[in-house]
Amino acid sequence: SPRRKLEPHQSEILQQSVPPSHAVTENSIEQSHDHLIDNILTDTHGRHHNYLRISLSERCNLRCQYCMPPEGIQLSPSSNLLTDQEITRLVDVFVKNGVDKVRLTGGEPLLRPNLASLIRQISSSLRTADRNLSGSGLVGITTNGISLSRQIDALVDAGLTGVNISLDTLRSDRFLEITRRNGLEKVMRAIHDTIRAFREKYGDVRLGPNGTGGSRVKINCVVMKDFNDDELVDFVDLVNNTFCGDVDMRFIEWMPFNDNGWNMTKFLSYEDMMDQIDSKVPLERIEDGPNDTTKWWTVQNQASVRKSRIGFITSMSEHFCSSCNRLRITADGKIKVCLFGSNEKEVSLRDIMRNRSSNNSRSDEEELSEVIYAAVQRKSFALGGHGNAEAIAKAADNRPMTTIGG
Questions:
Q1: Integer Cα distance of 387 and 80 in angstroms
Q2: What are the start-end ranges of the H helices in 221-306?
Q3: What is the dihedral of CA 258, 143, 339, 175, to 10 degrees?
């Protein structure tokens, strides 16, 4: 069939969104017509992206030191953010092209109005695609947990299948220091309430035969040297004993983003974390899942049948970019193909949906699919094209974490 020309607004959006060295040309967009639909989310390194992370809000009710400055950041006007209808439209396009897992992030996603309704629509889109829905986290959420208790039942009823709760300390004074807010008791209560809600819905919070698989509830802890690294063993004890194996624990290497003050003096590597934990609580390696960002361990010789998994997200010291299957959509509607990619490589899907000309006979699904394909083709192999953590920090060409969505 003859090649179609780009709409003027589409070409303009693409060229303004990437630097000349990464320019998305009309020819590269048109080439997507020659590819099967299954390949639209496959990049030049052979990685197929079936996992979509969508930021629902740039706002957050905490001010975590590793995420943003104490005064907060400049937020986009609400009119610039994706509407529920636009989000579900994008989900439909991505699901048709192979996405089978969606995670909602922020900012703080629980600040989004009508969140349960949005989750219900996303869950319906995944079910309509007739994919296997037995896995964990097909419609997940990452939250600080502050307001989770009052929403969790409605969210699980709407189709939520997994919750990651960010928690960096078990000490109230340190929680205030890290987040610049109070709220540790609310987060701990939210973990209990989430376990209960999933158990009531599914019979067990853990997956697999007799609960031997991973948990639907995970605690994420960003670790910094001489700040909260003295609590690593406390967290291991929390998930295994206090939560009796119902919760998985993940320790995350501190990553550089704009305005988060990243530096090597506070960076603690996976190897150093392991040394601190293993000297007190011996761990044994267990199998990771496909495309897993986490290196999973469990406590050796643990008497309990239900063992929490202890994981490490090693983005900086041992990156896992070769098997990356993630794409991100920011709250203001831009596709971000790499967490560490520069702002200039982002492409606005929102503008394509909103700026369609009245005489354009093509469907927005066709336009969006082509632009998504072109953006995915420009995904760097590792770390957004930067060599290492220090290079990412030096470039300072990314967004603050709260406006990316993690």
A1: 33
A2: 232-237, 270-278
A3: 40
